[in-house]
Amino acid sequence: MSDGATIDGWACPAPLRDQPNIVMGHGGGGKLSAELVEHLFLPAFDNPHLDGLGDSAVLELPPGRISMSTDSFVVRPRVFPGGDIGELAVNGTVNDVAMAGATPLYVSVAFILEEGMPIDELAAIVQSMAKAAGEAGVQLVTGDTKVVDRGHGDGVYINTTGIGILRDDIDIHPRNVRPGDTIVVNGTIGDHGMAIMSVREGLEFESAIKSDTAALNHLVTALLDGGIDVRAMRDPTRGGLAATLNEIAVAAGVGVVVDERDLPVERAVAAACEMLGMDPFYVANEGKMVVFVPAAQADLTLEIMHANELGAKAVVIGEVVESHPGVVVAKTAIGATRVVDTQVGEQLPRIC
Amino acid sequence: MCLGIPGKVVETYDKDGVQMGKVDFDGIVKEICLSFVPDAEVGDYTIVHVGFGITKVDEASANETLALMKDMGMLAGELDANVALATEEAIAAGEAHP
Amino acid sequence: MKHLDEYRDPELARKLFDEIDKITTQHWVLMEVCGGQTHSIIRNGIDQLLNKNIELVHGPGCPVCVTPLDTIDKALAIAARDDVIFCSFGDMLRVPGSDEDLFQVKGGGGDIRIVYSPLDAFRIARENPDKQVVFFGIGFETTAPANAMAVYQAKQHGLTNFSMLVSHVLVPPAIRAILDSPVNRVQAFLAAGHVCSVMGYAEYVPIVEEYGVPIVVTGFEPLDVLEGIRKTVAQLESGVASADNAYPRAVSFEGNKAAQDLIADVFKTTDRNWRGIGMIPGSGWELSDRYADFDAALRFDVGDIDTQEPEICRSGEVLQGLIKPNECEAFGKECTPRKPLGATMVSSEGACAAYYTYGRFIEIEGASP
């Protein structure tokens, strides 16, 4: 290690070679913080806004309304089959912005790191974020780092805030939903939640289930450019498909009917749910969207989705009805009906 | 009580003196204790509850049950004939004993 | 999944519904004992399509719901200790004690871990020799062999940091208690399929003979439940009463001997107080004297616990099938899954929770098929 007097002479991209873990100083705003920015964040996120190293990023935006979303990511374990917390943090916020029909452009990222967290691990997360941002076509333009005492932070918490531009001619909102509309989902449900379960202590199992974490903005663009009159759209994350359908049904004041037999679920995900006594309806997704479209455009919607990697398994799962406004009803496997209510709290594995 | 789901035994071994195995549920594989189904072999199905096999699935029985259900609503004579046929097929397939 | 999906076939379900229609000529009251069966009936809408002459009454087969209140309170006290890692099945996390639940204790700093199997708790004990690991051993007979194995292994390995808070409950005494009740309306029972995988169904024969009620071992998938109902109604319609098996692929008359042998070694019969119902003699299992060292209730002195059940909760009557959940005045009002008054509203197997979750209190226009 150099005598530590300045960072100018450093050629090695890894800061603090002799200090493999995060220390309080990394959040202090002084040299250690600067080293983290200089040697870790800047090279990874690589864009002129960030390189400016100002207190804020000054951005030029195309015309239109601004869609803004923020989310914090605390998932454990931090790395899971199919992704990690970093990827989730970028995709999650990109998706929230995109669900309004906006084109996501810029994302900020704030880290809360726990003292003692290995820098290698942080570096891997940062690389994931950079990769996800590249795939989504967004830039990580400003950020912050704080460090908390050991034992108070669970490794790393990430907050991302994203902004995008919403063209003036786009109006996507539950109030637009009407009876007769078709409900489409772009692929299999429950993948993310069960991928996490597969590596959760006490519940782990071997499987090929991978998180579906993905940026959906390109798929959204394809739908809008293809002329689909999207009434409402949302990504079913925590609480699963059930939560999202209920939210929209309530907000729109309409009834929703889905057929359980049409719900796309991977066999392994279905099996994992059976084993743990969980219902795929309530399991989290991170690369899925539920789209309400006019019935006349259902076929075209599927066509556009099928042509996109993230929509290859898109299917119609149900429709909007006038009766039982605010309530989601599902046709069961044997042809009866049941109400699908929102879950209270997190769905837990059961033995009964 | 008693969420028990059927899985296929794909491996059996002794661990610390306890009969264990790997059981496959449609692509999900979990280590399961097979102490209570000591005669379960690779390829057999077992009902698993909280990480333990509690019984082997009797495949012949299962086939019979489904056959009986499929025949519901048919005339009595046809019913018996179908059951006999299903049983014959099962015996031929080695899944049941006469 | 093989041996599972076949029993969800809508065509075969239709045939069974039709067959039941054909043979049913009068009103019958059947009780399904097992919470898993209740869950399946309501989730699949079986009671919606079933012949209206058949009344399904939901029994106390939810070990989570019937775990005595003071046991829950003891669990909460133990789980709150700094030196304890408390392991439990997910079902128990939200069951309310007199004051709070395990989730809240977790929020307050308790090291509470959800496990899939009792052997996971045993493993955690081996990996954390400096902590006391306590496993919440609840369940009916189905779960007993697994819980027994964990204790047995702990003894074999000489583990001093593993113990179990045991609260096993037994089905046959519960059935007798229901039949003995002066206000009993149940005329036949769908016995719990996986309980019988372990115990067989020989022990129901004396009950059938004494009370003259049909008892049919029944599984959990829609076709299994329907077949159980069909066989039961067939008996009732012909005036016979016998112990029969509608789940032969998973249940034999004698049951699982290896499991029964271990249970006989590790547990002994005891009187048990069923939450909401009261004391049923000989209806529980506790650790046998040989294994008393592993009893968490003895190992941890949790002092005096003031156990109090909310007065307006009628889960006891629900558990005995005397009222339906939506006949309780508090249902959907003071008592919801978000703020449950009794265990039947918390446990996903509880009849109240099942009714609420599957929306029986919502008048659905046009939701009937």
What's a concise summary of this model?
The complex is a heterotrimer of chains A (352), B (98) and C (369). Chain A is of the alpha+beta class.
Main traits of this protein?
heterotrimer, B: 98 residues, alpha+beta, five-stranded antiparallel beta sheet, 30% helix, C: 369 residues, alpha/beta, six-stranded mixed beta sheet, five-stranded parallel beta sheet, 17 helices, 39% helix, disordered C terminus
Care to describe what's here?
The complex is a heterotrimer of chains A (352), B (98) and C (369). Chain A is an alpha+beta fold and 352 residues long. Chain A has helices spanning 31-45, 48-51, 85-98, 119-136, 191-197, 217-225, 240-252, 267-276, 298-306, and strands spanning 65-73, 79-80, 83-84, 103-114, 139-148, 156-166, 182-185, 232-234, 255-259, 290-293, 315-321, 328-331, 337-339. Chain A starts with 30 loop residues before the first helix and ends in a 13-residue tail after the last strand. In chain B, helix 1 (59-70) runs antiparallel to helix 2 (76-92). Chain B has helices at residues 59-70, 76-92; strands at residues 5-15, 18-25, 28-33, 45-49, 52-56. In chain B, a hairpin with a 2-residue loop joins strand 4 and strand 5. With 98 residues, chain B is α+β, with helices and mostly antiparallel strands. The termini of chain B are far apart. By secondary structure, chain C is α/β, with parallel strands linked by helices. Helix content of chain C is 39%, strand content 19%. Chain C is built from 17 helices and eleven strands. In chain C, helix 1 (10-23) packs parallel to helix 12, helix 7 runs parallel beside helix 8 and helix 8 crosses helix 13. Chain C is globular. Chains in contact: A-B, A-C, B-C. At the B-C interface, strand 1, strand 4, strand 5 and helix 1 of B face helix 1, helix 7, helix 8, helix 10 and helix 13 of C.
Summarize the topology:
The complex is a heterotrimer of chains A (352), B (98) and C (369).
Chain A: H1 31-45, H2 48-51, E1 65-73, E2 79-80, E3 83-84, H3 85-98, E4 103-114, H4 119-136, E5 139-148, E6 156-166, E7 182-185, H5 191-197, H6 217-225, E8 232-234, H7 240-252, E9 255-259, H8 267-276, E10 290-293, H9 298-306, E11 315-321, E12 328-331, E13 337-339
Chain B: E1 5-15, E2 18-25, E3 28-33, E4 45-49, E5 52-56, H1 59-70, H2 76-92
Antiparallel strand pairs in B: 1-2, 1-4, 2-3, 4-5
Chain C: H1 10-23, E1 28-34, H2 35-44, H3 46-49, E2 54-61, H4 63-66, H5 69-79, E3 84-88, H6 102-107, E4 111-114, H7 118-127, E5 132-139, H8 144-156, E6 162-169, H9 171-180, E7 188-192, H10 193-199, H11 205-211, E8 215-218, H12 222-238, E9 243-245, H13 257-266, E10 267-274, E11 278-287, H14 296-299, H15 315-319, H16 343-346, H17 351-357
Parallel strand pairs in C: 1-2, 1-7, 3-4, 3-5, 5-6, 7-8, 8-9
Antiparallel strand pairs in C: 6-11, 10-11
